[in-house]
Amino acid sequence: MIKLLLRNSKEKIIYGLIISSALITMGILFWIFIFIVMNGMPHLNLQFIFSNYSGEETGIFPMIINTLMVIGITIIIAVPIGISTAIYLVEYAKNGRVVNVIRFSVELLAGIPSIIYGLFGMVFFVTILNFNWSILSGTLTLSIMILPTIIRTTEEALISVPKEYREGSLSLGASKIRTIMKVVLPSAQSGILTGIILGMGRISGETAAIYLTAGMVPRIARGILESGRTLSVHMYLLAKEGISFEEAYATATILLLLTLILNIMAKILSRNQES
Amino acid sequence: MESRNVIEIDNLNLFYGDFQALEDINIEIERNKVTALIGPSGCGKSTFLRTLNRMNDLIENTIVKGDVILDGVDIYKEINLLDLRKRVGMVFQKPNPFPMSIYENVAYGPKAHGVKNKAILDKIVEENLKKAALWDEVKNRLDKSAMGLSGGQQQRLCIARALAVEPEIILMDEPTASLDPIATLKIEELINELKKKYSIIIVTHSMQQAGRISDKTAFFLMGEIIEYSDTTKLFSNPQKKKTEDYITGRFG
Question: Are A158 and A195 in contact (CB under 8 A)?
């Protein structure tokens, strides 16, 4: 009887701990979210969003455009390479040393702090290749950084395609490449898209790597060889230089909104895949 | 003139690495007949089936020795793999339609072999869905996903898909194992119809099924063919003790 009571109370305590951990996590998340939005909202208006950052104007329009440009170009560079790598690993490579080396490199890439990518980009793309601080240097650096995300999610999506689909296609005399393009990739589509969107989220929030490679000119970059400041870099400068915390919060609100939209998109897509 | 045998196999041995899955297989498969392969699980009957369209090539470390002759041509030495699979179609144990429309499923094979004309594809789709006795059930929803069909319908769709590339031989790997009795009956009726034009080789776990639909039966055990003869003869008057033990249910 006493044993039973003891066991019951032990379970209750553990249950309580688990629940409170969950509540604390959620609480902190909401608190951050509300804190930033509360502080950002008063300064947020159409003029702030749609005007330039020069002279009297303190708008973030150039940064929004630069951010979208960086996201777009990085995706264009990284996605084909990432998907091809994943296809090689899942569909072609036989398990052996080469695959292990590639897998290990991918894991390694994923674990490197972004400032190191930034440093590498600054030395290699900015200086050695002489691309200067530019959208090109920045997006090339970020492409390398998000490759692991793209490769891993694509790999998982490809692995989850039933082998019966591949057999069905091959047994009809379709070539391997046709099987991959027409049957395997379409079946893995939403998983791959989810990975791409997660990668986009990472790009939009990245600061260190892009700050060291794309520079911080607060104008819309008119070409990929021009420097351009992104939202996250802008926020960093506003806060670090003590220019304006109101503006920093307002910028953060926009960035949060962007990340939120990307995450919701990823959720919807992965739900679609399950059904 | 076409010879009586569509496939002739001479001293076939197959290894997965060190494991010998098939041993000294010698068999002649007759044209326009249904040949059933029976035997307990793991006896090599599915492995044997998959040597005939070289699906075993997908498994690493598979070594095939001996001759598999399809209409006078050695399929391991003298034929393009994609051509072989066009001539030797396959239907799998679990219905595996692609996650596309019913139409696209049937048109997939012809497209892979270069048919682009929409009118021709339309004709191929209709013809083969009719051959697979599925046309009436799906003609109004060809553009709907094949995943919405019942298991039996999906399997008949897979048969239509296989027929659409105009094979000479159809391999069936326990095609009714995952279907209910009524769907099974439909597939069996279909096999009876199809053998007029195609040579069919079917792996089955059910001896009743082998008895109902096949002309010839081969009994596999431990990677070897123990007995191969007319189905009626094999079931009524088996020559080997092991065959008799198996068909009377003493093991397996």
Answer: no
Residue B187 amino acid letter: I
**∠ Cα B173 B179 B180 (to 5°):** 145
Check CB contact of A99 with chain B, cutoff 8 Å.
Answer: no
| Residue A169: closest C-alpha in chain B | B109
Strand arrangement of the beta sheet that strand B216-221 belongs to: B88-91, B169-173, B199-203, B34-38, B216-221, B224-230
Instruction: Give start and end residues of each alpha helix (H) in A206-244.
Output: 208-214, 231-240
Sequence spans of domains, chain A: 2-43, 46-274
Helix (H) or strand (E) holding A59: none
User: Homologous superfamily of A46-274 in CATH?
Assistant: MetI-like (1.10.3720.10)
Rounded Cα–Cα distance for residues B88 and B6 (Å): 11
Interface test with A, best of B53, B54, B85, B93 (most A CBs within 10 A): B85
Indicate the residue of B82, B92, B98 with minimum beta-carbon distance to A173.
B82
Whether residues A173 and B113 touch (CB distance < 8 A) is answered with yes
Per-residue pLDDT at A55 exceeds 90: no
Rounded to a whole number of angstroms, the distance from the CA of A163 to the nearest CA of chain B is 10
Rounded to whole angstroms, how far apart are CA atoms B28 and B6?
8
CA of B240, closest CA in chain A: separation in Å? Answer: 35
Count of A-B CB contacts under 8 Å = 64
Predicted confidence (pLDDT) per residue in A157-188, tens digit = 999 999 999 999 999 999 999 999 999 999 99
**With an 8 Å Cβ cutoff, is B100 touching chain A?**
yes
User: What's phi and psi for B106, nearest 5 deg?
Assistant: -75, -35
| Interface contact flag, A171 B113, Cβ < 8 Å | no
Say if strands B34-38 and B62-70 run parallel, antiparallel, or are unpaired.
unpaired
User: Is residue B227 within 8 Å of residue B244, measured between CB atoms?
Assistant: no
Residue-level pLDDT at B95: 93
Task: Provide the token pair at A57.
Answer: 């104007």
**Torsion sign across C-alpha atoms A116, A117, A119, A120:** positive
CATH architecture, range B5-247: 3-Layer(aba) Sandwich (3.40)
pLDDT digits over B113-171, tens only? 999 999 999 999 999 999 888 999 999 999 999 999 999 999 999 999 999 999 999 99
Burial class of residue B123 in the structure, from the number of CB atoms within 10 Å of its CB (0-12 exposed, 13-18 middle, 19+ buried): exposed
List the one residue out of B23, B52, B18 whose CA is nearest residue B171.
B52
